[in-house]
């Protein structure tokens, strides 16, 4: 079907609009799915009314997206083949964006409907791998060459380690708090609408604020990159390249690209010739150019594609075992200078992402709140457990967001609550943990299969 969508045609424009709508709805679903974890403790312990909690959490998510960077966004984007990073080059790339977003969105809504805490990050990574793997194999690449497995490994490691850290730190902190504050009333689950003491309510509101803000700085970034890809497809003349790149950066670019060609010849992989050709074309297109605005609008999208191919090959060399330390260091240095031209996000894209995430936060929280409050431990969650778990979660998520590591708010908070349950001696509920574990295990292969299926159906 995709071959009938001619670049620049009205039909392709409509497909791009659909892609943008799917990305925005995915961010919306991210809000009502993941952020329920942030408001669960204050709602369940009656520290805040539900309406107050979700509005406050939505606002903090909004501010978190604006305050966060874009490192997480492009850590995920780098999992995609270079061809999909320039949607105007053809309907194939647009089809990939539609398929991966539809797969992650389907999984998100499905697990939310079942009340199972699930990671939007995990779902998105699985969809990305499915698209990249199918496309790479169809193009004749090997299994190892079809996907940037080093990048995948880094992303999955962060997703795996973060809930374990949440469990361990929450267990330790809860035990410490129990020793320092031995007041038994603070460790009783709410009954018949009872509320914790004022200072504990304040602590729970503070930790809710921290998790919500941290969620915005991390999860809020994840859709920014995909919003940018759709925007670039809709308006390539304006957004294919970062117009705010300085003349000094362009001068550096003209110096780095020839050096990159030499590096490709020495240490490139099976895509070296494609990268060399792209680098040479890039040099010709930027000859004598001192600002992005001076590049003719119809040439910006092809130059973006060439630059993405060069960046992908440099990334492969940076993590290539057979490359020397000097070659890997050179590749890393070149990448730092080149990526800012194509990896950026205007302020209004950040606001658009923040609005969708914040709006999604304000609905759909009830299913997940009940699971966290009553479904993880053998006893109902008490206020101190909720505060401890969220204090740890906000610290871990915020640290990851500002260092470019995509982590799951759901997994970290759930791991934290489980840690406090074990720390209190109450133990865990096997049925609920089994459902969460099964969802965690099935998310990656499930979303990989869904994205591959949707892409196959489109193409």
From TrEMBL:
This is Phosphate transporter. Belongs to the inorganic phosphate transporter (PiT) (TC 2.A.20) family. The chain crosses the membrane at residues 54-80, 92-115, 121-140, 152-177, 197-216, 223-241, 437-458. It is found in: Membrane. InterPro entries: Phos_transporter. It holds the Pfam family PHO4. It is a multi-pass membrane protein. Keywords: Membrane, Phosphate transport, Transmembrane, Transmembrane helix, Transport.
């Amino acid at each position: 079907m995709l071959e009938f969508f001619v670049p620049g045609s009205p039909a392709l424009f409509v497909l791009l609009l659909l892609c943008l709508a799917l990305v925005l709805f995915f961010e919306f679903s991210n809000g009502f799915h993941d952020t329920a974890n942030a408001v669960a403790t204050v709602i369940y312990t009656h520290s805040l009314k539900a309406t107050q909690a979700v509005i406050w959490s939505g606002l903090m998510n909004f501010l978190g997206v604006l305050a966060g960077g874009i490192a997480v966004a492009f850590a995920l984007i780098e999992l995609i083949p270079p061809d999909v990073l320039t949607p105007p080059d053809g309907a194939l790339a647009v089809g990939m964006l539609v398929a991966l977003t539809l797969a992650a969105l389907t999984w998100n809504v499905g697990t939310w409907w079942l009340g199972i805490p699930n990671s939007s990050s995990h779902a998105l990574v699985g969809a990305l791998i499915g698209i990249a793997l199918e496309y790479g194999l169809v193009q004749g690449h090997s299994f190892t060459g079809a996907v940037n497995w080093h990048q995948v490994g880094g992303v999955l490691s962060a997703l795996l380690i973060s809930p374990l850290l949440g469990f361990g730190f929450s267990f330790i902190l809860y035990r410490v708090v129990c020793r320092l504050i031995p007041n038994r009333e603070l460790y009783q689950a709410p009954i018949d609408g009872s509320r914790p003491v004022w200072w504990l309510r304040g602590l729970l509101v503070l930790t809710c604020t921290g998790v919500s803000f941290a969620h915005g700085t991390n999860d809020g970034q994840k859709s920014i990159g995909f919003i940018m890809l759709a925007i670039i497809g809709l308006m390539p003349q304006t957004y294919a390249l970062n117009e705010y790149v300085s003349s000094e950066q362009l001068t550096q670019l003209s110096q780095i690209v020839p050096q990159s060609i030499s590096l490709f010849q020495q240490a490139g992989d099976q895509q070296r010739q494609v990268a060399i050709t792209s680098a040479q074309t890039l040099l010709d297109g930027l000859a004598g150019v001192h600002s992005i605005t001076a590049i003719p609008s119809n040439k910006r999208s092809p130059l973006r594609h060439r630059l993405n191919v060069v960046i992908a090959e440099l990334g492969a060399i940076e993590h290539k075992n057979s490359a020397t330390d000097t070659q890997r260091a050179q590749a890393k240095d070149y990448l730092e200078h080149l990526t800012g031209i194509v990896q950026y996000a205007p302020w209004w894209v950040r606001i658009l992402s923040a609005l969708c995430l914040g709006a999604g936060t304000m609905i759909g929280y009830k299913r997940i709140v009940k699971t966290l409050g009553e479904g993880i431990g053998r006893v109902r969650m008490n206020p101190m457990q909720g505060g401890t778990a969220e204090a740890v979660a906000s610290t871990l998520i915020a640290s990851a967001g500002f260092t470019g590591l995509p982590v799951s708010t759901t997994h970290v908070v759930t791991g934290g609550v489980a840690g406090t349950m074990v720390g209190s001696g109450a133990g865990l509920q096997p049925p609920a943990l089994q459902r969460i574990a099964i969802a965690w295990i099935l998310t990656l292969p499930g979303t990989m299969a869904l994205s591959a299926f949707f892409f196959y159906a489109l193409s």
